[in-house]
Specification:
The chain is built from five helices and five strands, in the order E-H-E-H-E-H-H-H-E-E. It is globular, with a radius of gyration of 18 Å. The chain has helices at 13-29, 41-46, 65-69, 87-93, 102-115; strands at residues 2-6, 35-39, 51-53, 134-135, 153-154. 32% of the residues lie in helices and 11% in strands. With 155 residues, the chain is an alpha/beta fold. A three-stranded parallel beta sheet has the order 2-1-3. A two-stranded antiparallel ribbon has the order 4-5. The relative contact order is 0.12. The N and C termini lie far apart (56 Å).
């Protein structure tokens, strides 16, 4: 019955509070009593929340998925705040050989799309044009697109 806000940068508080109040009003319209409360990671790991809104950093290559969806990363051991567990997904996330394969990424997407352990409300979209001759380019919306430039090479 609580709508909770995870610590976020000060500049985003107004937009987030607007979104939280909008969500609270819609839940009230549906007959669900809710409250907005800021919580820390310790609170998250000790309590079960019906709705938890928090900031999550996503990379375009999906490399952070293990941290957010592995049963080994259930809070406080990581950012799996939803306490999500799926044996098929865990098998992929635990196998470093498989996790980055195209087939594994399709399977991960299929599992997460079907079960929806978290529901993203907002995501920045950044498009970038990269030459086909550039190898090992791995965009990263959190660290910036040049974070691994020391590993690049051209054909």
């Amino acid at each position: 019955d609580e709508v909770s806000e995870k610590n976020l940068p000060e500049k985003h508080h107004e937009q987030i509070n607007t979104a939280l109040n909008y969500l609270k009003d819609n839940l009230k319209y549906l007959g669900v009593k809710s409250s907005i409360k800021e919580v820390n990671e310790e609170d998250i790991s000790k309590n079960n929340y019906d709705i938890l809104i928090y900031k999550r950093i996503s990379t375009t290559d999906g490399s952070e998925r293990e941290y957010y969806f592995s049963e080994n990363r259930i809070s406080p051991n990581g950012k799996n705040f939803s306490k999500y567990s799926n044996q098929n997904l865990q098998a992929i996330l635990s196998d470093t050989e498989r996790i980055n394969s195209k087939e594994s990424q399709k399977n991960i997407n299929s599992i997460l799309s079907e079960e929806i352990p978290t529901l993203p409300l907002f995501m920045y979209v950044k498009n970038i044009l990269v030459s086909e001759n550039l190898n090992n380019f791995r965009p990263n919306s959190y660290l910036g697109n040049t974070w691994n430039s020391f590993e690049w090479w051209l054909n």
